[in-house]
Amino acid sequence: MRRRRQAPWMREMVREHRLHPSDFIWPLFICEGEGEEQPIASLRGVSRWSIDGIVERAKEAADAGIPAVALFPNTADKDRSEDAREALNPDNLVCRAVRGIKDAGIEIGVMTDVALDPYTSHGHDGLLAEDGSVDNDATVDILAAQALVQAAAGADIVAPSDMMDGRIAAIRDTLEDGGHSNTAIMAYSAKYASALYGPFRDAVGSGDRLKGDKRGYQMDPANGMEALQEVELDISEGADFVMVKPGMLYLDIVARVADTFETPVFAYMTSGEFAMIEECAAAGAGDRDTMLMEALTAFKRAGATGILSYHALEVARKLRA
Ligand code: PBG
C-alpha cells in the first residue's frame, strides 16, 4: 500500500475525492443599516453585513467560483412578533438583500431560509399553539406564503429549515400557483435537534429568545433510519435537493442518503462545527488549515454533492490559487 503513498505526485494521481469551489454554498448574515459590519463573537471571523456589504460578498463569491449564497437575516427587534408577520413583508431584510444581489447583476444563485425563527419573539421556527408546542399546520401555511414572498423577490432556491411535516408539498404548490415554477427547493430534510447551532442563533439574534428547545420538530440525534424517511418524504413532495444538518457529526447520515437516493444531497457544516475547528486551532490543539481541509474533504468522501460552509469564500479562493 505504501508504494502508492511515496510521493506527492503519486498521491495526487490516486486521490479519490477533491474539493472544488463549486462544492460550496456560502451562508451570509444580514443586518440593517448602511456600511455596517458586525462581527459575531461566537463565530470567529464571521460578520453580519448590511445589504451593501452582502452585495459585495456575493460578488466576491461569484468571482471565486461559488455557485450560491444562502441568506439569513438578523431582524430588528421591533419587527419580531408572536405571529412572525415580518416574514411575509415583501420589503423585509432578506427580500431587500435578494433584490440587491439580483439588481447588481451578479451571476450567483441566491438561496433563502424558509423558517420563522428570525421573526418570532419566542425564537421558534413556527407558530405556537395554546399549549406552547409548535403548531404544524398553521406554520406550514405561513411558510408557504413566506417562500412565495422570497421567490417574488428573486430567490432562486428556497430552503425550508423548519422541519414541519408537509411543508415541501405546500411550498411547491404555492410556488406553482404563484407562477414560480422555476424556483427550486432545497429541503433541510434531516435536520437534527443539535447543540451545534449556538453561534448561528447568536448571529440571527434568536438564541436568547428561545423558550425551551426544538426537539418537538427537529430530529433526535440518536436516529439514523428516520433520516431516510424524512428524505424520502421530501423528495416525494417535490424537493429538488435535500440536506443533512449538522454535517460533520452526521457524515454517516450523509453517506446513507447519498447511497439510497438519486437526489443531490447537501450537508451543512454548522456554526458549532465551524467553532469546533476554529476554537480547537485557537487553543493550539491542531493546525487550523489542515483540520479545515480534512473536515471539508470528509464531506465529499461521505458522498455530499455540496457543502454549506462559513469557510466557503476562503477555501474557494485557496482552491483557485
Ligand atoms: C433555523 C436555522 C438554524 C440553522 C439554520 N437555519 C438554527 C436552528 O434550527 O435553530 C443553523 C445553522 C448553523 O448552526 O450554522 N431555521
TrEMBL record:
Catalytic activity: 2 5-aminolevulinate = porphobilinogen + 2 H2O + H(+)
Pfam families membership: ALAD (PF00490)
An example Gene Ontology biological process: heme biosynthetic process
UniProt binding sites for Mg(2+): E230
Alphabetically ordered keywords of this record: Heme biosynthesis, Lyase, Magnesium, Metal-binding, Porphyrin biosynthesis
Family as reported in the entry's similarity comment: Belongs to the ALAD family.
Subunit structure: Homooctamer.
UniProt-recorded name of the protein: Delta-aminolevulinic acid dehydratase
Native species: Sphingomicrobium sediminis
Gene: hemB
